[in-house]
């Protein structure tokens, strides 16, 4: 466990870059022994909320519980992911059993591969992902790389190209600035020298305008910052994939610590919190069922509405519509009469058979 300190620092750096949560390594160490502060508690809940959101969205894109508070939304996302620990659903924002939060966090990492999901989403939504998703990209080259290279190799290739793009953007800006400086210098030097080509005012204005267009400070800096961020995320993720087994080995010691702690048992479960969460689930399920029933009722009403001819129906020939409706009604009436006749005959036959079984003293 000598490397666990570095691994926790790497994990915190990963979370800081990918989901923008200011988590610290000591929060994990404190949670192992159920020692927690108000700050670390809120950060752990925020981390679980962000990661569970990504994991649930990976399963189904229409899952969205952000209309509820952070605590309820986090529990709902975990319930959707079928997290089996009842004690977790009874926790409050100021809970003292922070080890349960740490176990839930490790469950997300191990079973849902949530960090890989976050990195993939961040990469696809970045400027690098948008550029690579352009239709000019050769699909054959992408498939060839995907089949011949491992995941680590692919990420390293992306990092290499990302660094090249970032480097080129930086040097393009520097070269344009240098060009403008040299143009101004040449303009100043050539003012008092005969037989030397001199730049007029319009040429100077044109160069400055081109410089302003190509070196838009806001967009260029934003692009460079975004490329730097996604490069840092990919770099940290590669290192995390190589050392994540150390974190899971450390989590085994956390579970052992949990087993030997006498204060963690079923009597410590906040059943009131569990009941409140069950009530919330019941409310959500009822609302969903009501919306489904409403949609079905609406569809059936639309169906029956189309089967009838409206009095206000405007057609080119109203008599034809009335005749059609009359013919349909007569056809249905004939079917009903025929059905009644058949039922009457069957009923008479059954009565006759019953009377034949009655003793001879009864005469029909």
From TrEMBL:
At the top level of its lineage, which domain of life is listed?
Eukaryota
Cross-referenced InterPro entries, in alphabetical order?
TEDC1 (IPR043535), TEDC1_dom (IPR027996)
The record places domain Tubulin epsilon and delta complex protein at 82-255
Pfam families for this protein: TEDC1
Protein name (Swiss-Prot/TrEMBL)? Tubulin epsilon and delta complex protein 1 domain-containing protein
**Species in which this protein is naturally found:** Odynerus spinipes
């Amino acid at each position: 466990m000598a490397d666990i300190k570095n691994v926790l620092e790497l994990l915190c750096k990963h979370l800081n870059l990918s989901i923008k949560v200011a988590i610290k390594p000591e929060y994990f160490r404190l949670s192992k022994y159920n020692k927690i502060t108000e700050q670390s508690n809120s950060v752990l809940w925020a981390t679980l909320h962000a990661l569970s959101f990504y994991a649930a969205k990976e399963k189904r894109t229409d899952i969205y519980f952000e209309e509820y508070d952070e605590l309820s939304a986090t529990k709902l996302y975990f319930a959707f992911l079928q997290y089996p620990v009842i004690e977790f659903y009874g926790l409050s924002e100021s809970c003292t059993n922070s080890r349960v939060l740490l176990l839930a966090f490790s469950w997300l990492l191990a079973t849902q591969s949530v960090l890989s999901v976050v990195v993939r989403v961040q990469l696809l939504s970045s400027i690098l992902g948008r550029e690579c998703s352009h239709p000019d990209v050769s699909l054959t080259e992408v498939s060839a790389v995907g089949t011949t290279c491992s995941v680590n190799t692919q990420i390293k290739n992306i990092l290499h190209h990302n660094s090249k793009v970032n480097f080129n953007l930086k040097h393009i800006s520097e070269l344009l600035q240098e060009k403008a400086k040299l143009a101004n210098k040449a303009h100043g030097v050539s003012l008092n020298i005969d037989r030397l080509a001199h730049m007029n005012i319009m040429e100077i204005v044109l160069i400055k305008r081109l410089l302003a267009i190509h070196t838009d400070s806001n967009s260029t800096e934003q692009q460079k910052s975004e490329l730097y961020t996604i490069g840092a995320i990919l770099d940290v993720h590669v290192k995390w994939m190589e050392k994540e087994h150390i974190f899971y080995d450390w989590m085994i010691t956390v579970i052992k610590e949990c087993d030997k702690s006498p204060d963690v048992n079923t009597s410590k479960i906040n059943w009131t919190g569990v009941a409140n969460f069950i009530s919330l689930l019941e409310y959500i399920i009822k609302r969903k069922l009501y919306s489904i029933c409403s949609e079905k009722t609406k569809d059936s009403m639309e169906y029956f509405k189309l089967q009838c001819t409206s009095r206000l129906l405007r057609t080119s020939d109203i008599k034809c519509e009335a005749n059609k409706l009359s013919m349909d009604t007569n056809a249905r009436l004939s079917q009903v009469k025929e059905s009644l006749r058949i039922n009457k005959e069957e009923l008479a036959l059954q009565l006759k058979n019953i009377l034949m079984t009655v003793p001879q003293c009864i005469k029909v």
